[in-house]
Amino acid sequence: MQKNEVLSKIESMMPFFSSKEKKLGKYILEHSSEVTILSTQTLSKLCDVSEPTLIRFTRKLGYSGYREFKLKLTAEYVSDPISGTLINMDSHDSPKDIYLKLASFTISSIKSTSSTLEDDSLSKAVDCIYQAAQNNKQIFLSGMGASSLMAESFQVKLMRLNINSVFFSDMHLRLEACTNLQKDDLFICFSALGSSKENYEMIEIAKNRGAKVLSITQYGCTKLAKNSDIVLYTSVIENNLRLASQTSTVIHTMIEDTIFLALAMKDYDNMSHNVKETREIFHKLGHTIISSK
What GO molecular functions are on record for this protein (predicted)? Predict the structure, then answer.
């Protein structure tokens, strides 16, 4: 079943919690309905942590303290009484079972990300890319591991908007190209958890050269956020196997597509003309068939 917003946020931030905070998070996830009637003192004792640790935990989640956290959790239970836990995968699952369970994690992450993805930050990200393109500033894309695929995918989307960007899959070439950044250029970093040191090395180079930094990463990754001018937070809940970042890839792709469409809408008439012209060229070369109306 679908977790409510509070539980989804805890689930997605688990990689960034301290050992004591993880004890709190695990207990709350497993006894969420019970927590709605527990005092600060009682919950702290049950989790073998101090009350100040519990308060810091709730503030890290974005609440003013335990009282607001509990009120939010209780309110969501009233509005969604059947809220429960996502179902983990196991070795006995059929391919259809796996599909359905992956879908549940993806849907949960989409809904949770809608609360961490701030409208103001998203608008700033779109405007920043648009202004960089309009002013002929360099747009540099980066990401490690699976996130590099997101960077490469975004480069293709920008190309379709006639926006040039720089991306190298080779790490040495990427570092070398990063040293060419100038003041007010734009560095865009894709990172699932903000755990790759290479991202921080390139962000430091970009900042030192006066470039702006836009990061797309998991909610709770404060280290990456501190070094960025704009941050778009995802709230990804991966399945229990964690063999690959399936859900993260879907969520990052949705954010990319949102930015792509928002940029296209800024010059829709010209964009529509370019798409039509491209299709006609492809058809003339025999690569596509244009159906008659």
Answer: carbohydrate derivative binding; DNA binding; DNA-binding transcription factor activity
- DSSP assignment of 229-287 equals SEEEEE-----SS-SS-HHHHHHHHHHHHHHHHHHHHHTHHHHHHHHHHHHHHHHHTTS
pLDDT for 172-191, tens place per residue?
999 999 999 999 999 999 99
**What are the residue ranges spanned by the domains of the chain?**
5-84, 116-278
pLDDT at 263 over 60: yes
User: Is the distance from CB of 57 to CB of 26 less than 8 angstroms?
Assistant: no
232, β-bridge pairs: 216
- Residue 82 per-residue DSSP state: T
| pLDDT above 70 for 80 | no
Q: Is 187 within 8 Å of 142 (Cβ atoms)? A: yes
Tokens representing 1?
Answer: 């079943």
Edge to edge, the sheet with strand 230-234 lists 139-143, 186-190, 212-218, 230-234
The string of DSSP letters for 17-52 reads: S-HHHHHHHHHHHHSHHHHTT--HHHHHHHHT--HH
CATH number of 116-278: 3.40.50.10490
The pair phi, psi for residue 166, each rounded to 5°, is -115, 130
Can you tell me the distance from the alpha carbon of 31 to that of 222, in angstroms, rounded to the nearest whole number? 27
Q: Are 177 and 168 in contact (CB under 8 A)?
A: yes
Q: 5-84 adopts what CATH topology?
A: Arc Repressor Mutant, subunit A (1.10.10)
Count the neighbouring beta carbons within 10 Å of the beta carbon of residue 250.
17
Q: Which DSSP symbol is given to 166?
A: B
Rounded to whole angstroms, the Cα distance separating 231 from 225 reads 6
Spatial contact of 189 and 200, defined as CB atoms under 8 Å apart: no
Conformation bin of residue 220: beta by default, left when phi > 0, alpha when psi is -120 to 50: left
